[in-house]
């Protein structure tokens, strides 16, 4: 087979570019300990009720201005279905699912997590305004999906 000289150069140039590109993508994807931001903690989804902190779901005070909300998502609701948090406090949401994929979404905030069984999904938020905040499920999870919600009372 006969290549024109420039054709050969461009072919080599193209191959080199591809190698450089794949190397950059590969190095970025797998180096530096990159991990998804949540879902690093795992648990047995069939034993959620026996696994701390989900054996005692609800709000737990960590320090003066920090709370942990350990919540269980399931078809079709959250346990507990209502929590009360102080205005301005930092709330760390730890949410897991007992069955299928759900979401934990607080409209109007940046809290929007996919809740996957077998994982503890974590997000933080401080409610600066008092009020009643609705938490919704954004992932279709079955016949009762549209009714799946809980309330956060901020006082
Ligand atoms: Cu849970 Cu949709």
Written description of the protein model:
It contains 1 helix and 11 strands, in the order αβββββββββββ. Strands 1, 2, 3, 4, 6 and 9 form a 6-stranded mixed sheet that branches. It is 17% helix and 39% strand. It is α+β, with helices and mostly antiparallel strands and 155 residues long. It has one helix at 5-30; strands spanning 41-42, 58-63, 66-74, 77-79, 82-85, 90-97, 102-105, 112-115, 119-126, 131-136, 149-154. The mean pLDDT is 90. 21% of the residues are buried. Strand 3 and strand 4 form a beta hairpin. It folds into 2 domains: 1-34; 41-154, Cupredoxins -  blue copper proteins (Immunoglobulin-like). It binds dinuclear copper ion. Residues 76, 102, 137, 139-141, 145, 148 line the site of dinuclear copper ion.
* Assigned CATH superfamily of the largest domain: Cupredoxins -  blue copper proteins
- List the bound ligands: dinuclear copper ion
Q: Any idea of the CATH class of the largest domain?
A: Mainly Beta
Residue fraction in strands: 35-45%
Unreliable runs, pLDDT <50, ≥5 residues?
none
How many beta strands in the DSSP annotation?
Answer: 11
| Quaternary organisation | single chain
**Number of helices in the DSSP assignment:** 1
Beginning-to-end CA distance, first to last residue? 79 Å
Could you say which structural class the secondary elements and strand pairing correspond to?
alpha+beta
Q: Would you list the SSEs in sequence order as H and E?
A: HEEEEEEEEEEE
CATH topology of the largest domain: Immunoglobulin-like
Mean pLDDT: 90
Largest sheet at a glance?
A: 6 strands, mixed
* Name given to the CATH architecture of the largest domain: Sandwich
Write down the domain tally: 2
Radius of gyration: 23 Å
């Amino acid at each position: 087979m006969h290549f024109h000289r420039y054709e050969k150069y461009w072919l080599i140039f193209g191959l080199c570019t591809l190698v450089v590109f794949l190397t950059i993508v590969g190095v970025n994807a797998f180096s530096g300990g990159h991990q998804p931001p949540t879902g690093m903690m795992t648990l047995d989804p069939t034993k959620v009720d026996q696994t701390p902190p989900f054996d005692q779901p609800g709000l737990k005070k960590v320090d003066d201005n920090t709370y942990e909300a350990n919540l269980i998502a399931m078809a079709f609701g959250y346990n507990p279905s209502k929590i009360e948090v102080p205005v301005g406090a930092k709330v760390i949401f730890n949410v897991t699912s007992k069955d299928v994929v759900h979401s934990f979404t607080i409209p109007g905030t940046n809290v929007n997590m996919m809740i996957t069984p077998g994982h503890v999904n974590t997000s933080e938020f401080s409610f600066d305004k008092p009020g009643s905040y609705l938490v919704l499920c954004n992932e279709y999870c079955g016949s009762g999906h549209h009714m799946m919600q809980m309330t956060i009372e901020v006082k």
